[in-house]
Amino acid sequence: MEYSLFTRLAAEFVGTAVLMIFGNGAVANVELKNTKGHNAGWLNIAMGYGFGVMFPVLMFGGVSGAHINPAMTLAQAVNGMFPWSQVLPYICAQILGAAVGQLIVYICYYPHYKETESAEAILGTFCTTDAYATRRNYFINEFVGTMILVLGALCCLELQWGKTNYAAASIVVGFIVWGLVCSLGGPTGPGLNPARDLMPRLLHQILPIPHKGSSRWNEAWIPVVAPILGGMLGCWLFNVLFAI
After folding, report:
1. What is the mean pLDDT of residues 59-73?
2. CA–CA separation, 221 vs 139, rounded Å?
3. Helix or strand or coil: residue 19?
4. d(Cα 27, Cα 105) in Å, to the nearest integer?
5. Which class in CATH covers the domain with range 5-242?
6. Which tens digit of pLDDT belongs to each residue from 229-244?
7. Which residue from 80, 92, 188, 196 has the highest number of Cβ atoms inside 10 Å of its Cβ?
């Protein structure tokens, strides 16, 4: 069934919002003061992001492809797998969805944002930073992580076994994200998605949050550029090595 462009954009919007609610919501639950999940640990965050990708792919994969990530949209367009005419509308829907999803997280955790005094903990619920405070490390981890994510997702969803059993493939994609956050997420967060970092960072800048500190715009280009380039390489590897 071919869905209208409006319906596909709605799917990208809602899907990206769901990603933010599950992913950054899990971070807020762990990092913010006096939540029920305060200090629950990294596994809780990894699960949040894994489910935050799994559910939109299950919900909307058959509608829009569930890119929910500008890096995935651009990677497929560059490699001839997605029409350029739809790239800008898809990315606009994704970044707006990311903003709305992050705003929902902020509203739901509003009292805890007011109580939290750690600027680093607050920023972590919005966007990524590098634990080692080096831009080179930041770039490398976002690049490699997104390359693996895009390659893995395409292998699951585009190869014959995934097309035959899309639900199973969608679940595996969620586990890929869960595994990436557990294995390569320590240095940066990770972001692996320009919309997931850029729009929440903008909200961090403008929302009236006590003790929030700097939004660190001097490094904000890294979780935008590195995932885009990494995604392109991952998609190219899929086309060269595995596409039928």
Report:
1. 96
2. 9
3. helix
4. 10
5. mainly alpha
6. 999 999 999 999 998 7
7. 196
- In the numeric block, which tokens belong to residue 103? 């705003």
Rg (CA), the chain: 17
The single-letter code of the amino acid at 208 is P
State the chain's mean pLDDT as an integer: 96
Which pLDDT does position 244 carry in this prediction? 72
Domain ranges of the chain: 5-242
- What's the confidence (pLDDT) of residue 197? 97
Q: How many helices (H) and strands (E) does the chain have?
A: 11, 0
**CB-count exposure of residue 241 (10 Å: 0-12, 13-18, 19+):** exposed
- Alpha helices, DSSP H only, in the chain? 5-31, 42-64, 70-78, 87-108, 110-115, 119-124, 135-158, 160-164, 166-184, 194-206, 222-241
pLDDT tens string 12-60: 999 999 999 999 999 999 999 999 999 999 999 999 999 999 999 999 9
CA-CA distance, 134 to 214, in Å (whole number)? 17
